[in-house]
What does this fold into?
Amino acid sequence: MLKTAERKTAKEDADFALLKSIIKTKLGFNCEYYKDSHFRRRIDVRLRATGSSNFGDYVQVLKNDPNEYDVLLETLTVNVTNFFRNSEVYDIIEEEVFPAVIKSKSTGLNKSIKIWSAGCSIGVEAYSIAMLFHHILGNSIKRYNITITGTDIDKASLQHAQQGVYNETEMKDVRPAFIDKYFVKEGKQYHVKDELKKMTHFKSHDMISGPKMGGFDIIFCRNVTIYFEKELQEKLYMNFYNGLNENGFFVMGKTETLIGPSKDLFKSFNAKERIYAK
It folds into this structure.
């Protein structure tokens, strides 16, 4: 017979498995790809908030309160973020990566530059990229067709990105000259100007199970894959490699590391800032 502690653990594991199944069915959020430690930490936030003693209690909360699903998805996907986060990365992007891409497009007939901000959250990365292109190119920006695509699975974050309205905390690392040029301040809110919005668009896309995307000159996926199991990381890095044009760039988070076949395929462009070239 199972001891009391073993029965309790078995029940807990069964309830956890049931909860993951419900989340996948109701939210389309595949928990199996995430590290259990990360996933449990996020779930614990809602357990405490709803007064649930265990996963079984929380399953009942979800059954009794359909609104809890929206709060749960926000908790699972929430990211603390701001413009030009990890400024050292953006320094290399501005001084070396963007000029290389612009140079490669300046001599040929193809003037299109396509960039993907994967796991874009509330859009600050996409707009940071747009600001740098405007700054570097000036009036010459009209010669190029620059498209910045931000994708995420969280609807609230995408709506925030599309609205383009940010608070002072999110703006803390934006250069004063950029604030004056690319934002309209209303009270304590900063509204992104249309010239940046014209370059950016945001859409719902699951990089794990959604359709593959390609044809990009640069792909940013920073501080996202760190939460995934290694097997999925390998798959995603190959998807990013295949989604890049020849001589394209991949930018990952500073705490993340290339693993699997992509490690041998990508060339290191700036190892310290985790920037790689195809």
